[in-house]
């Protein structure tokens, strides 16, 4: 069962499908490269994964393809 530990200590489950903690991101430029009938797999491969910690609301974004290397963003106080 894949999971990742947030900086606050919460374990975020990444194996649920669909995953309530996971968001998929694509840039406007990348999105504009798609038109007409779209292959959902090709679109999915261009997307970045973002996880939301339900405890502290940090965002963990995987900018590269390496699933364990997320950049963490904390809400401002």
Description:
It is elongated and about 45 Å long. Helix content is 16%, strand content 29%. It has two helices and six strands. The longest helix is centred in the middle third of the chain and has 7 residues, at 40-46. It has one domain. The strands form two sheets. The protein has a four-stranded antiparallel beta sheet with strand order 3-4-5-6. A hairpin with an 8-residue loop joins strand 5 and strand 6. With 77 residues, the protein is an alpha+beta fold.
How many helices? The count is 2
Task: Give the biggest sheet.
Answer: 4 strands, antiparallel
Gross morphology is elongated
Sheet with most strands: strand arrangement:
3-4-5-6
Low-confidence stretches: none
Q: Helix proportion of residues, in percent? A: 10-25%
* Class per helix and strand makeup: alpha+beta
SSE pattern, N- to C-terminal: EEEHHEEE
Strand content: 25-35%
Please report the distance between the alpha carbons of the first and last residues: 33 Å
Rg computed from alpha carbons, rounded to a whole number of angstroms: 14 Å
In terms of quaternary structure, what is this? single chain
Indicate the mean pLDDT: 91
Number of domains: 1
* Counted beta strands: 6
Spell out the key features of this protein.
single chain; 77 residues; alpha+beta; 4-stranded antiparallel beta sheet; 16% helix
What topology emerges from the helices and strands here?
Blueprint: E1 3-5, E2 11-13, E3 22-25, H1 28-32, H2 40-46, E4 48-52, E5 59-62, E6 71-73
Antiparallel strand pairs: 1-2, 3-4, 4-5, 5-6
